[in-house]
Design a protein that fits this description.
By secondary structure, the protein is mostly helical. The chain has helices spanning 13-24, 27-39, 43-71, 75-82, 89-121, 131-142, 146-163, 167-194, 199-207, 216-229, 236-241, 250-279, 289-298, 304-338, 342-361, 368-371, 380-407, 410-417, 427-452. Helix content is 75%, strand content 0%. α1 (13-24) crosses α12. The protein binds tryptophan (TRP). Tryptophan binds at residues 23-24, 26-29, 102, 228-229, 231, 233-234, 236, 322, 325-326, 393.
């Protein structure tokens, strides 16, 4: 069994922030945020989302980090260490299971981004393609059989290869290379998009709130998006926090990560909406937005091919630094609790996720039964998202708030947060949010999705 001392650590605050921001910043920011904002009315949705990041996201993030650093364990071991002989470790186990579940469908979508990157490099979009051709390209990719499976396998192999290297030499080193590249591409793309004709209309859509568009449904989606985007509710941040040195200031590190995550979702909006409005496309295009609509636009703009390559490289990198964190949660559990070697754990567990990803990969048209499991056009991948991305994450976040707020207790959590001699000025506000506001907000959303089946 690995001892606390030899589990590995981030080598610096920068190392932790890049890795944790890498986890948070993912398809959730660049693929899911723009299309959900687009479908839910733009500006008003964005405001509610920002509110939830502040009032729920950051408090829960700090709670997860404090549990992780206090115990220096994976999610299961963390609960075991903080409250021995209780049922709490089951919450950690739910997190580990959720890691498998999310990774299994996330890697399928991540696989598509790789294919689009290869297409972009080979000039597929440079001549300009029509909306119809683009739709066909997408449908034939996702509705295939071997290609989507192979792509998700490639993505998982890449993920395992990084996680196998450990905390500082694997995850920290890889994310330190990938995230700066990501940042540069992102800024270049935003400049390109904002200088397109018609960009102003896109900005208005993203920032001018129309509160008549707000419903309970959009509010619930905004909270779900805030949790998912910050990688909360399954112990990913417990795990990353467990490698934080004791002298790090948790609130500073946590707020920096949340700041980057949120800014990058907004920046992704600054790329996508001006581009959409420039081309006269509808912002409500749904999940196909970045795969179907964007390619039709690349061909018609100056340096479109470069723009396309940069855009899909951006998506692939974002996805990779997130799948790394999902796999790390599972690997940490088997390494800490079951005594597995890290390399062995990384490959075997990524292999297991690959097997679980196969039905997902086949469920977007490849196999008729799997594709229509929940009714016309709603298949196994959607089911995975509902079970793991909606229910599991909300239940996990709710339990974590109850744990930190009521069981382990705010005083102990604060003692961990402030143990570097640093005083958290907002401590009373944070305690209130973790004890009352966050669990109630998450419980309301959980009740709402249970009753209405309106998932995020
Ligand atoms: N936050 C990532 C995104 O926005 C996805 C992700 C990575 C995640 N690790 C997670 C979501 C843990 C929930 C829990 O794409």
């Amino acid at each position: 069994m690995s001892t606390v001392a030899n589990r590995g650590n981030w080598t610096s605050r920068f190392g932790f922030i890049v890795a944790a921001a890498g986890s948070a910043i993912g398809l959730g920011n660049i693929w899911r945020f723009p299309y959900t904002a687009g479908q839910n009315g733009g500006g008003a949705f964005v405001l509610v989302y920002l509110g939830f990041v502040l009032l729920v996201g950051i408090p829960v993030l700090l709670a997860e980090l404090s549990v992780g650093r206090a115990s220096q364990r994976n999610p299961v071991g963390a609960f075991k260490a903080l409250v021995p002989k209780s049922l709490w470790p089951w919450v950690g186990l739910l997190g580990v299971l959720t890691g498998f579940g999310i990774l299994a469908f996330y890697s399928v979508i991540a696989g598509w981004t790789l294919r689009y990157l290869i297409w972009a490099v080979s000039g597929q979009f440079s001549g300009g393609i029509t909306a119809e051709q683009s739709g066909e390209l997408f449908t034939s990719l996702v509705g295939g059989t071997t290609t989507p499976i192979l792509l998700s396998g490639m993505f998982l192999a890449l993920t395992a290869w990084v996680v196998r290297g450990g905390i500082s030499l694997g995850i920290e080193r890889a994310t330190k290379i990938l995230m700066p590249i990501f940042g540069v591409i992102l800024v270049l793309l935003a400049i390109r998009a904002l200088t397109l004709e018609g960009a102003g209309e896109g900005l208005r859509f993203l920032f001018a709130p129309d509160f008549s568009k707000l419903t309970v449904k959009t509010i619930s989606i905004a909270l779900g998006q805030a949790l998912f985007s910050l990688s909360l509710g399954m112990g990913a941040m417990i795990t990353y926090g467990s490698y934080l040195p004791k002298n790090e200031k948790i609130p500073v590190a946590g707020c920096t990560v949340a700041f980057f995550d949120t800014s990058i979702a907004i920046l992704a909006g600054l790329i996508i909406f001006p581009t959409l409005f420039h081309a006269g496309a509808s912002p409500g295009g749904g999940p196909g937005l970045v795969f179907v609509v964007m390619p039709t636009i690349f061909g018609t703009m100056p340096f479109g091919t470069l723009f396309a390559i940069a855009f899909y490289a951006l998506l692939s990198i974002a996805a990779l630094t997130s799948t790394i964190s999902l796999l790390e949660v599972i690997v940490a559990y088997f390494v800490d609790e079951k005594g597995w070697g890290r390399g062995f754990a990384a490959w075997v567990l990524a292999g297991t996720c690959f097997v679980l990803a196969i039905p997902s990969a086949l469920s977007v048209g490849g196999n008729r039964f799997l594709s229509n499991l929940l009714g016309e056009g709603s298949g196994f991948l959607d089911l995975q998202n509902i079970i793991f991305g909606n229910y599991s994450l909300s239940i996990g976040a709710l339990c974590l708030c109850i744990f930190v707020g009521w069981r382990w207790g705010i005083p102990k959590a604060l003692a961990e947060i402030e143990n570097s001699g640093y005083r958290m000025q907002m401590a009373p506000v944070w305690g209130f949010l973790v004890r009352y506001f966050c669990p109630v907000a998450v419980a309301v959303v959980l009740g709402y999705i249970l009753v209405t089946r309106d998932y995020f």
